Amino acid sequence: METDGTSFAALAADASRGPAETAEALLEDVRRGLDRNPEAARAAAVRLVTLLTLSAATRGKGSRGGLAPWQKRRVDRYLRRSLHRPLRIEELAEQAALSASHFARAFKDSFGATPQRYITGLRLERAQQLMLGTRDPLSQIALACGLASQAHLSKLFRRWLGETPSAWRRRHQTRAPLSPLTTP
Question: Whole-model pTM?
Answer without folding.
Answer: 0.61
